[in-house]
Write a structure and sequence with these properties.
Helix content is 43%, strand content 22%. By secondary structure, it is α/β, with parallel strands linked by helices. Strands 1, 2, 3, 4, 5, 6 and 7 form a seven-stranded mixed β-sheet that branches.
Length: 211
């Protein structure tokens, strides 16, 4: 695994899983803008970002808990970590949207699990995504497949940051439409340049002949 002088942020894994170009714009270019989705997300995090600790219904709850992993070179914060009776952490990631499965959310939660396991020394089998819109939790099982997928993404993000290269936009209009960095990214313009390059290669080739 690549070792970096500076750890990567936990949020970089979610960004990379959503779109590698988004990840590079935020974590290499330090570019970030808000849209309606990010504003709603910030409002949903108002309490968890307070850093308040305490007990809810007899369960120890830590909010905005700092996390790190020397093994994977990660750093960041967990929205909420509940501690079960035996001391096992139960991370809960807050999202503003509706209750539906999104792999990039599960990856971010899994990265928190990797940090907590290293910090506390207990195996974590489950966490949850709390969806603010529905006020319901979606339980996330910590499977071997999710662990492996997340570790692979960690390696890819380290490699991306080390390379300093800007990935091409994803070919997914629905992802681009919801992205707050669409104006900065300009996916249509970048894709248009690639189409022009391809057209230039075949511009003077007679029809029916190979290049």
């Amino acid at each position: 695994m690549l070792k970096q002088k500076h750890p990567i942020m936990l949020s970089a894994l979610q960004h990379y899983s959503y779109c590698p170009r988004q990840c590079a714009l935020i974590h290499q270019e330090q570019t970030f803008t808000d849209n309606v989705f990010t504003v709603k997300g910030n409002l949903a995090h108002k309490r968890v970002d307070s850093g308040e600790s305490g007990f809810d219904d007899g369960v120890q709850v830590e909010r905005s808990l700092p996390l790190y992993s020397d093994k994977y070179q990660l750093t960041g914060k967990a929205d909420v970590v509940e501690f079960l009776a035996d001391g096992t952490p139960y991370p809960v990631e807050y999202k503003h949207g509706s209750r539906q499965k999104k792999m990039h959310d599960d990856v971010q939660l899994m990265a928190q699990v990797l940090c907590l396991e290293e910090m506390i020394g207990k195996v974590i089998l489950e966490g949850a995504i709390y969806h603010h819109k529905s006020h319901r939790r979606r339980v996330v099982k910590i499977t071997d497949e999710l662990r492996q997928h997340t570790v692979e993404l960690i390696n890819k993000v380290h490699a991306l940051v080390a390379s300093g290269k800007m990935p091409e936009p994803v070919d997914d209009k629905s992802l681009c439409r919801a992205c707050s960095l669409k104006q900065t990214c300009q996916p249509e313009l970048v894709a248009g340049k690639e189409r022009i390059k391809q057209m230039q290669k075949t511009l003077f080739i007679p029809e029916g002949e190979d290049e």
